[in-house]
């Protein structure tokens, strides 16, 4: 049942993004920002963690989870270190994913040649 809910919730998040691109004049970049901000707002309201517990990877893999991670890390560090924790918490929680994206992007650029 866990896999079914992950599929449904993850699919709904993707459907929302696709509908925003198909039915409006928003670019993919605009839709991505909207989804990241939605994840951040939902985490700020305390609604995203229960969604992750319910849907698992269906809620933790889509781009909305990045907004969740930013706010969650900032709030967690702010409790321990005050105002400076807001800034350090954002980088601490998301640094592994961002670093991996940069490293794998660089490695791909060494293997593949761009055309143009």
Automatic annotation (TrEMBL):
- Mind telling me which InterPro entries this protein's record contains? Spore_V_AE, SpoVA
* Transmembrane regions: 27-47, 54-71, 83-112
Tell me where on the tree of life, at the top rank, the source sits: Bacteria
Write the record's keywords in alphabetical order, separated by commas.
Membrane, Transmembrane, Transmembrane helix
Q: Which Pfam families match?
A: SpoVAC_SpoVAEB
Q: What PANTHER family is this protein classified in? A: STAGE V SPORULATION PROTEIN AC-RELATED (PTHR38450), STAGE V SPORULATION PROTEIN AEB (PTHR38450:SF2)
State the name under which the record lists this protein.
Stage V sporulation protein AE
């Amino acid at each position: 049942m866990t896999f079914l809910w992950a599929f449904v919730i993850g699919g709904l998040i993707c459907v929302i993004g696709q509908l925003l691109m198909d039915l409006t004049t928003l670019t993919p970049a605009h839709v991505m920002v909207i989804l990241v901000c939605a994840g951040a707002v939902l985490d700020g309201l305390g609604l995203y963690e229960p969604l992750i517990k319910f849907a698992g990877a269906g809620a933790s893999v889509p781009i909305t989870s990045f907004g969740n991670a930013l706010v969650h890390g900032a709030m967690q560090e702010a409790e321990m270190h005050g105002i400076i924790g807001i800034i350090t918490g954002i980088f601490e929680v998301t640094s592994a994913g961002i670093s991996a994206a940069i490293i794998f992007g660089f490695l791909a650029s060494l293997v593949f040649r761009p055309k143009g």
